[in-house]
Design a protein that fits this description.
The protein is α+β, with helices and mostly antiparallel strands. It has a single domain, classed as Cytochrome P450 (Cytochrome p450), CATH 1.10.630. Helix content is 51%, strand content 7%. The chain has 19 helices and 11 strands. A 4-stranded mixed sheet has the order 1-7-4-2. It has a 3-stranded antiparallel sheet with strand order 3-11-8. Strands 5-6 form a two-stranded antiparallel sheet. The radius of gyration is 23 Å and the shape is globular. 36% of the residues are buried. Pfam families: p450.
Length: 453
């Protein structure tokens, strides 16, 4: 163990306020921080299990189904089969929903307009196309449902505002304390479940009725609720309250792992773009050319041609500046890495992102510098995983929704860059906000101004 000077509190202050320095010290003495040398092994073997964060991030206290391993497997299967595999079919709907959000959240900027991004504008922008895909085009028109999707993760985070100081006694003590409100009936996210249930029930009932009447002539809508109705694990003949609870819980788990993360990444990418005027013309010209080719209606082929924007997004994700990955892994049995280091059973393994994303072997003598066209020059797309790029994990534990997330970010940025000049209030690169080892986008706001057509 790394020695410390403060009794009881131990390393808490160092961890919260200088996580990178603390982990460098840990790396020299404790084999629980997986850096550039061994992280890929953690993600590529069954010995390590994801979601070892249940002590510090007890989502299972809200969604009971997460206590069962098969729930996560079903979610991964759904994302792969019903979203990732059908991306081309969703492209037109995604850009349509983005334009609705852009007009609503930003609108006309004849005069420069400061948009305070901390207000969750981009959560709503991401939530609208996600709602379209999850619950269909009819329900996604309901602003209350879009708001429920956008606010869900933010409200869940309010349960977790207590820093993990009590973990010095035992991690489970911290878990018990932060979940006390839930056990006493305070649940800030239940209102969102009620909103979704109220809008979902009549639509599901109508679909079941249409199926019964039309038979083979029934034309199934393309969305996740239709996929679930036809899935052996989630299908039904009657829409009961229990069934609605089950479906809503399943959908909101997808919301947690999609909208919050994607909106943070897109917001950060916009700040990265806005603070680098030397890149504006080059990336804008690519978007103009593609817009002319597709006459304003993007297809998957056109999105694939956004090679400069894709490379820029990849670099923004690489330099997001979180010191570690959000979700650690638990070692299920003693494991010896190829370099000879051994981790005992039960040990939590944290992915040291900065050691991976800022390693000099891959990114040169100044790996912390922003390399906008590194991906383009090395044929690495933003959604492609490799041992030097762990934004979406690696191996069998890689995020199955990464293709959808990157497409969303690219479509959103494409539309925004085409329509607006975007810059930071200071005219410089804004610093990200750090809380312990995790990073969040800046909060200074972005200035939008209409482009001359």
């Amino acid at each position: 163990m790394v020695p410390y000077n403060i009794p009881i509190i131990g390393h808490t202050l160092n961890y919260l306020f200088n996580a990178e320095k603390f982990l460098v010290e840990c790396r020299q003495q404790v084999n629980t921080i997986a850096g550039n040398e061994v992280a890929h092994e953690v993600y590529r073997t069954d010995t390590f299990r994801r979601f070892g964060a249940t002590d510090s991030f007890p989502l299972y206290r809200v969604f009971k189904s997460l206590e069962y391993p098969e729930t996560l497997q079903q979610i991964i299967k759904t994302v792969r089969e019903a979203i990732a595999a059908k991306l081309p079919s969703y492209t037109g709907r995604i850009q349509k929903q983005f334009m609705i959000s852009i007009n609503k959240e930003i609108g006309d900027c004849f005069n420069p307009k400061l948009i305070i991004t901390a207000n969750g504008n981009f959560s709503s922008m991401i939530a609208r196309p996600v709602a379209d895909i999850l619950v269909g085009q009819e329900i996604s028109k309901n602003e209350d449902v879009v708001k429920a999707f956008a606010d869900f993760t933010k409200d869940f985070a309010s349960i977790l505002v207590i820093p993990p100081i009590l973990s010095f006694i035992h991690p489970k003590v911290h878990t018990q304390v932060i979940t006390l409100p839930l056990r006493f009936g305070w649940n800030p996210i239940w209102k969102h479940v009620i909103t979704l249930k109220g809008n979902l029930k009549p639509v599901l009932e109508k679909r079941l009725k249409d199926k019964e009447i039309l038979g083979d002539k029934y034309e199934p809508p393309l969305d996740i609720i239709e996929y679930l109705l036809n899935d052996p694990e989630h299908g039904t003949k009657v829409i009961t309250d229990d069934y609605l609870n089950k479906i809503c819980e399943f959908l909101f788990i997808i919301v947690v792992v999609s909208i919050h993360t994607t909106s943070r990444f897109m917001t950060s990418a916009l700040y990265d773009f806005a603070g680098r005027p030397e890149l504006w013309d080059d990336i804008y010209e690519e978007q103009v050319r593609i817009d002319k080719e597709c006459n304003g209606e993007l297809s998957s082929q056109h999105i694939n041609k956004m090679v400069k924007l894709d490379s820029f997004v990849r670099e923004s994700l690489r330099t997001f500046d979180s010191v570690v990955a959000t979700i650690p892994h638990r070692c299920m049995k003693s494991y010896t890495f190829k370099n000879g280091m051994t981790i005992p059973k039960g040990r939590m393994v944290i992915t040291y992102l900065m050691d991976i994303h800022y390693n000099t072997t891959a990114y040169g003598p100044e790996p912390r510098s922003f390399l906008p066209y590194y991906g383009l020059e090395n044929n690495f797309s933003a959604s492609k995983i490799d041992k030097n790029y762990f934004t979406f994990g690696s191996g069998k534990h890689a995020c199955p929704g990464r293709f959808f997330a990157v497409n969303e970010i690219k479509i959103g940025m494409h539309k925004l860059i085409l329509n607006y000049h975007i810059k930071t209030p200071s005219g410089k690169i804004e610093k990200k906000i750090h809380s312990g080892p995790l990073a969040s986008p800046p909060v200074s706001g972005l200035i939008f101004e209409n482009r001359k057509k």
